[in-house]
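Render this sequence as a predicted structure.
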Amino acid sequence: SDFIREWLPWRTEYLNVILEGEQLAKGGICEQCCQAEGSIRCMSCTGVHAWCGPCAVKAHRNLPFHKVQRWNGTHYQATSLMDLGFLWHVGHGGGPCPQAQENPNPEESGYVSGEGPPNYRRSSRSQMTIVHTEGIFTHEVSWCSCPGSDPIDLHLSLLRERLFPASISKPKTAFTFEVLNHFLIDALECKTSAMSFYQKLKRFTNNAFPDRVPDRYRELMRVSRLWRDLKHRKWFGFGHDTELDPGEGGLALFCPACPQPGINLPPDWKARYDSNTVTRQYVIDGNFTAQHMKMNKPEMDVSLSDGKGYMVSEIPYQSHLQQSVDNKERSTCSNHRAINAANINKSNLRSTGIGATACARHGCFVPHSVVDFQKGERYMNTDYSICNALSYHSENITTALVIYDVGCQWSVNFRSRVKSSSSLFLPSGLEIIPAVGKFHLAAHKLSCFPRYSLNFVKGAGHLDGEILETLWAPFNKISPTARSMTQAHRQEVYDDHMRDSNWKKLVGIVPSLLKKYKTSNKCLEDMNQAYEQLNAVLDPNKVARWELDAVKAEADRGEALDIYLLRGDKAPTFHEAQLKLGKNPVSSSANLGSVAWLAEGISIEDSQDQLRYELRQLPSPMSARQEVKTSEKRQRLSSRIEKFHSTGQAFLKGLEIDGAFIPQDDPAFCVQEDQEKEDGEFWEDDDTVLEAPDEEVQELASELMSIWMPSSIGAAKLMEIGLHDLLKEEMELRIGQANDCLDQLRTDLGSKAMLYRQNFRTANSTREGTRTKKEIQKVVVRINKHVRSYQRARKAILRLDLNDNIGEKFKEIQPEDLAVSKEVTEENRFGQGVSKMAWFWMVDGEQNLLNGDSGGLMEEFYRINWLKARARRDRWREEVSLVRHEMLWTTLWFQYQKEIWETRALQSTEPGKEAYASKQVELWSDFTKKAGLMFQGKQMECI
């Protein structure tokens, strides 16, 4: 904004300078010959110039794609270099062919003859349309007539001029290499269609009358396919290894950080690594936006790279589909759209979508593993994709993690399907661990959570399994264009975009791993601290037993992983919680009267809190019945307070207490109380409404009266007047009050979580859901009540604690601490990698709850949270280790590419091939050096 403000005063001046450029340049005199009229200017050259026609042609001898204009007496008008006499000589570096005069009958070659420069005899010429980044140009071309030149090879002559011919015989159209590269990058980065790209070029050429520009859209479609194929074969070295066929996936990049034996693993990797470290991690998913229409004449389609990239070879894949049996297996877990959509068939579509497999840790598409769907997402499709992915550069790797949205169902009969198929193969001895991505796992049945959650897969690291979902977004932008392409063209387009996606992952792999390294170390520190804090308050015997269960579950998997499910079936009732509240610690003081008096004071505070809560439920103004009931409650409470203060004079030794305070309730813990109103409560009224009494003449209401207790005076004053025993007694009672509140708070939070889990989320009707919601609201009111009581106890403890030792134990409760325990309600939820328990679940003194054979819901809470805290710590520990290994593997992958091109450079016998190989060596050397420098001190050492 500051730059724009700075520019605004200059806007008019800028506009004047731009308009000055429209006048006749250089006074209309040619700047080169200084004699002829300088009516020609170039809009592509820098600076202001004025030439005559011949001088303009001479100045642009090697600049055929500059746009020139001619002064017509009043203004500049678009013209062309060809109109000025420009002749493009092909074959002699821009100069005329010395043998041109030896071909007096150019008509025999099939080309139109034209006049050339002075003293230049007739030669073979033709007009050509040439498409460039600046627009579409028409030029007269003079062909080479040297002995041995063949009209059949004219297309090769254009190619040597960096012009790609649109046809082999008698080319009339050519595309510059530059415009083809522009189109490829535009298509990859901006998802520009060929039509939009050519429309842009037409507007560059003639924005007012684009219909006057030659239409070469179909030629662009055809030539761009050929150019893309040549570029890829060049990049992957098949211009050097001409005797080799690319093979399946031969024109595809894969992930540099994933372990690949023989490529980026050390020679002794089998002895150095265990199976948990060298595990291939895959994720498979479908995209139903990537549809494909049936072709009218499929027999006319020509493929350039079938199966050479990421999409599978068509003929073997179709053979597999014909041999496979569609069992129409429906999911028994949840109503998964992908599987249950298998019966959907659209008659006008050849393909209803595509399915792809990618590396789960870095999001790189696996070569030769992308398949077309015919009727939704069937196992016969995904099996073919997964089997191809499992066999790609994975020799001797014995473990593979396969993450699939419906992995719980897909994995049941996968091996039997492979065994019964002649077209599906798996590496021998391969163990496949099925899992479900964290986001999709929330839609599964609860029983799927422990068995297919990535949180409990040993060696998986910190993984969400949803990275492929992020890769589909750019493909959805090209799907409408690819939908109506021919099958071969569509395959090449998808291959190209997947290759580009992997290339961008490769370019960013070094900073990506560094970011992961930093994040994983920080999270490991946090999760390890949370785990140790939880361990410190638990019974070591129980922790040891849980540890054995966790180790066994990781090894056995399957049903053994059900230890991560909550075993409790029912939360304690409200009456059980009330019974527990009566078991407050009793003071050891002999003065029982003072203890009873102090207990009565705490009870009065609770009664005041209850009355304030009830009054918050009343409307304003109150009805007559409500007014009467409120007055009665206030009178009874006022009598209790008066009696309490009268009795307290004896215990306080007649101490006169000055000042007053009004009890305040924290608004954060008074929410949702208005939803607690029920039938039959005291606020049900008749139709008579009374005006509220004047607050100025009304006495202080009993629910707002001060309750004077030793904590109201303070520890220092009590010690000064010798009320040590009274201080200790209230301190013990207040600690008991705080402990009871925290105990009941944990119980009610557990009840709330169980209600969510057992009733609210599984409600089969609106009525049932509403009833459960009311039950939850009741629990919320009790939770807020416990918190308010705890706050009163905590304030008293802080005033009575001389050394601040006890006060440190009882921390402040925040509203976010009262969230439903998602370890119970959403055990299969997304985002558990950095979960922590609130502080009051781990306070000192709670260890007794787990000593002996107490069992019950509280033990289940601690067991589940301990198991998950351990799993989170282990996954982050694995993540740190994996990232360090991936740094090494990435460096070795770059080194491998460098060595391949060094070999090609040494074996090259042609200068061009040797130069390109040397260029690639330098490229991969730069990648290797950058990785080595950035990973220094972080990656695993390669001994």
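Summary. The chain has 29 helices and 15 strands. The mean pLDDT is 82.
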